[in-house]
Design a protein that fits this description.
With 414 residues, this protein is an alpha/beta fold. It folds into 2 domains: 98 residues, Metallocarboxypeptidase-like (Alpha-Beta Plaits, 2-Layer Sandwich); 279 residues, Zn peptidases (Aminopeptidase, 3-Layer(aba) Sandwich). Helix 6 crosses helix 7. The strands form 2 sheets. It has an 8-stranded mixed β-sheet with strand order 5-6-8-7-9-12-10-11, sandwiched between helices. 37% of the residues lie in helices and 16% in strands. The structure holds 2-acetamido-2-deoxy-beta-D-glucopyranose (2 copies). The site of one 2-acetamido-2-deoxy-beta-D-glucopyranose (NAG) has 2 residues, from loops. InterPro entries: M14A-like_propep, M14A_act_pep, Peptidase_M14. Keywords: Carboxypeptidase, Disulfide bond, Hydrolase, Metal-binding, Metalloprotease, Protease, Signal, Zinc.
């Protein structure tokens, strides 16, 4: 199992300032009933020692949890006492992280991006600048504001004329998710270069606003310090830092799914839009001043297309159409690599967390297309995704986007 997942011949880098995860173990835990779930939820809420890579929920086949070496025995004991099934996936996740860094180091030519590994914030911003300079009539650099630490929240706008509706793509809200930013630059590149006929048409039909990294401070922090950090980097109460930006939007904020404990990895924040990143991005969207045809959010993980809203099972707005479009599009996504997605509202397929960006956007602007991609999970969570799975993730997600446009036109939603 181990050798299947890990690369051979790992190159270890010396990164002394970083938090290392030597001998931290990745578990797959399969809760099967409400008792199992409430034990895991209590652990999730109370412990800063274990890292949950997805929230405890019976909608997931399993929960990915990372344990430090010193606490493995405790964990395994607690789980087996409650008959909760668990499995060791990686004995030492540091090895997987070292492999990711190695793949990133291979990139050498400045301004050029490759979609065969992960990308740094600096690479992405330089590439956006480069595309703006080399395609001045089509591409522009857009800035939605500044992060808490003062980094630009940079996006790329692709427009081939006036009078189009806006189509907005957002990623990189979860700091440890290095996959969605690569996927979004891949999609942007396809729309700009237009090598694929459908991409060319899509780039002519809408003005695209693509923000690969909404949480640049967190992204940097996962590269330089703590690989599994999830939140932004703004202080909240006491010595606590960070809010889960995926739960800070003003749509039934804090009602379910996230935590109100500031130290928790899924802390919803001190109020809706309490964070500079969410507040400014929401203002930016309000100021775009164009009708919005579509909004898609991309993040890790679980292979689910989540349709607004999380607070209710009612089919609000065009929920049923969106489910139809989503199901068909996820069929197209599966063609290349067989990756299967579930489609539904958050309560049905994910953890029912309110305060999500797509929910707020749907409620505020009602674009005919609105959904969140929870991306590929190939047995290991995306934070630990091997670099060789990056390009396939890009390709299949791009196929899904094209299929969403196609299916939406087919049933007259676009
Ligand atoms: C990890 O575990 C191995 C095997 O038990 C041990 O030899 C090694 O020293 C440990 N590494 C660290 C950094 O604790
Ligand atoms: C940040 O964005 C502003 C425009 O809003 C730009 O003038 C500035 O150069 C950008 N800073 C960096 C570091 O890219």
């Amino acid at each position: 199992m181990l050798t299947k997942i890990l690369f051979c011949g790992l190159i270890s880098l010396v990164l002394s300032e970083k938090v290392r995860y030597d001998n931290y173990t990745l578990y797959k835990i399969r809760p099967q009933n409400e008792n199992h779930l409430s034990f895991l939820n209590a652990l999730f809420e109370s412990s800063n020692d274990y890292e949950f890579l997805n929230p405890p929920s019976l909608n997931y086949d399993y929960i990915s949890l990372v344990s430090p070496p010193g606490l493995k025995n405790d964990l395994e004991h607690s789980l087996s006492k409650r008959s909760i099934h668990s499995e060791v996936i990686l004995e030492n996740i540091q090895e997987a992280f070292d492999a990711q860094l190695y793949s990133r180091r291979k990139r050498s030519i400045r301004q050029e991006l490759f979609w065969t590994g992960f990308q740094t914030l600096e690479d992405i911003n330089a590439w956006i600048q480069y595309m703006t300079e080399t395609h001045p009539r089509v591409v522009s650099t857009v800035v939605a504001g500044k992060s808490y630490e003062g980094r630009n929240i940079t996006g790329i706008k692709i427009s081939r004329g006036s009078g189009r509706q806006a189509f907005v793509l957002e990623g990189g809200s979860i700091a440890s998710d290095w996959v969605s930013p690569v996927i979004l630059t891949y999609i942007a590149n396809q729309l700009i270069t237009g090598e694929d006929n459908e991409a060319k048409k899509a780039s002519e039909d809408f003005d695209w606003y693509i923000f690969p990294i909404l949480n640049p401070d967190g992204y940097e922090y996962t590269q330089d310090e703590v690989r599994l950090w999830r939140k932004n980097r703004a202080p909240t109460t006491g010595r606590n830092i960070g809010t889960d930006l995926t739960k800070n939007w003003n749509s039934h904020w804090g009602a379910s799914g996230g935590s109100h404990t500031p130290s928790a990895a899924n802390f919803v924040g001190l109020g809706p839009f309490s964070e500079p990143e969410t507040r400014q991005f929401s203002d930016y969207l309000l100021n775009i001043n164009q009708a919005m045809a579509g909004f898609l959010s991309f993040g890790s993980f679980g292979q689910k297309l989540v349709i607004p809203f999380a607070h209710t099972d009612d089919a609000l707005y065009n929920f049923n159409d969106m489910v139809t479009i989503g199901r068909r599009a996820m069929g197209s996504l599966a063609v290349k690599y067989g990756t299967m997605y579930q489609v539904g509202n958050s309560r049905a397929v994910s953890d029912g967390s309110t305060g999500a960006i797509a929910d707020w956007v749907k409620y505020r602007f009602n674009p005919p297309i609105a959904a969140s991609f929870l991306l590929r999970d190939s047995g290991v969570p995306p934070a630990i995704l091997p670099a060789r799975e990056v390009l396939p993730s890009c390709e299949e997600t791009f196929d899904a986007l094209m299929a969403i446009l196609r299916e939406a036109r087919f049933i007259d939603v676009l």
